[in-house]
Write a structure and sequence with these properties.
Layout lengths: L1 H8 L5 H5 L8 H12 L10 H9 L5 H10 L1 H4 L17 H4 L8 H4 L6 H24 L3 H6 L5 H21 L8 E2 L2 E2 H25 L6
Antiparallel strand pairs: 1-2
Length: about 220
């Protein structure tokens, strides 16, 4: 069953790669093929082993030793954005080993602190989704962002609240399991790219709202 799935989806790969997966990750195509093969290795469940296969292809565990080494070598970790050396036990800024979900506290106060793992991750993802969604909806409806949300003729507020809940929950699951976004990467998709895209989206979304308040109309007609 697994071999059939792989042959249909990735016909150009050799039989050797399909029948005996290697641990090498030099080829992105091979990694994708192995995920599909391993996920269907359970004859009773086509999705059996999916999580383990995805973890092998995308996850790089971050250990306490890695964090301590980065604290000693990374200049940005020696001095915070506030110009002070991070202090242990403070709410913020804190040393990396305390704010990381892999080694630090996973309490609500710690995770959602100013330098915690959750705020920027969740805000960035919501901003990326909201910015694209707002522009597409403006093109289709001719309504501004505020009109999309609060206009009685639309269901924008309902969808917005639902999307916030869904993205927040999905982002919190790995964090509460002791996994930061830096532990995952797949080709060009990595934590650093996500952070910068999220920051740009937050700036873009705020600029879109300000522009529409000045124009008194949508950016895209």
């Amino acid at each position: 069953m697994a071999a059939t799935m792989c042959l249909r989806s990735v016909p150009s790969l050799s039989y050797k790669a399909l029948s005996r997966p290697s641990t090498s990750t030099s080829s992105g195509a091979s990694r994708r093929a192995f995920v599909r093969c391993d996920a269907g290795s359970n004859g009773k469940n086509p999705l059996g082993g999916l999580k383990e296969s995805v973890d092998r292809a995308t996850k790089t565990p971050i250990t306490k030793e890695d964090i301590l080494q980065n604290q000693e070598q990374n200049q940005s970790e020696k001095q915070s954005v506030f110009g002070a050396v991070p202090n242990s036990g403070s709410f913020y800024p804190r040393p990396e080993i305390e704010r990381r979900p892999e080694t630090g506290s996973k309490s609500f106060g710690s995770v959602f602190a100013f330098d915690g793992a959750a705020p920027e991750t969740i805000n960035g993802r919501l901003a990326m989704m909201g910015f694209v969604w707002a522009l597409c909806a403006e093109k289709l409806t001719g309504l501004t962002v505020m009109e999309q949300i609060f206009n009685p003729a639309t269901s924008g507020l309902v969808f917005f609240v639902a999307a916030v809940q869904l993205f927040t929950y999905a982002s919190m699951v790995p964090i509460m399991n002791g996994e930061s976004t830096d532990a995952r990467s797949w080709g060009p998709f990595n934590a650093r790219a996500e952070r910068w895209n999220g920051r740009l989206a937050m700036i873009g979304f705020a600029a879109l709202l300000i522009d529409e308040m000045i124009r008194q109309g949508p950016l895209i007609h």
